[in-house]
Amino acid sequence: MIELNWCTMIELNWCTMIELNWCTMIELNWCTMIELNWCTMIELNWCTMIELNWCTMIELNWCTMIELNWCTMIELNWCTMIELNWCTMIELNWCTMIELNWCTMIELNWCTMIELNWCTMIELNWCTMIELNWCTMIELNWCTMIELNWCTMIELNWCTMIELNW
């Protein structure tokens, strides 16, 4: 993780997973591709390259953030827990977008999605581009699978997080 870009992940473009579903991961794993299921988080960490949970730096499950903000938003940057940018493709910190909205990204594409906003995806799906809505995932919630929309998080817009840029 130190020498490799998080999105490219061993020469595999994370957003250009043209033939792989990003979250359904029926037989393929999202990041490690070595028998680790990214969404279920049952016994394995999301990207345990360094044996640390992806967002559970403070022992909180990233997918079950039912009563907590998505990354607990307590003056800690989402990916800069170890002072590394999440997608430093453009040398900008993914979470500390103080003056730029993470999802609106009017002039900056999240992972070079070719002039498409990551969250606004009104008619285009986020990664798969094959008529699968990234947030709803065929009427199933993204990770929790307990009738809670991963992007809404108890009627709160995941991208706005109560007037705070994500």
Describe the structure.
With about 170 residues, this protein is mostly loops. The relative contact order is 0.14. The chain has a domain at about 100-165. The protein is about 0% helix and about 0% strand. It has no helix or strand. It is globular and about 40 Å long.
Low-confidence stretches: 1-166
Query: How far is the first residue's CA from the last residue's CA?
Result: 22 Å
Count of individual helical segments? 0
Largest sheet geometry: none
What portion of the residues fall into strands of 2 or more residues?
Answer: under 5%
Overall geometry:
globular
**Mean pLDDT over the full residue set:** 38
> Oligomerization state of this entry?
single chain
Helix content: under 10%
Number of strands: 0
* Computed Rg: 15 Å
Look at the helices and sheets and give the structural class. little secondary structure
Brief summary of the model shown:
The protein has a domain of 69 residues. 0% of the residues lie in helices and 0% in strands. The chain has no helices and no strands.
From the structure above, extract its key features.
0% strand; little secondary structure; globular; 166 residues
Topology (SSEs and partners):
Layout: no helix or strand
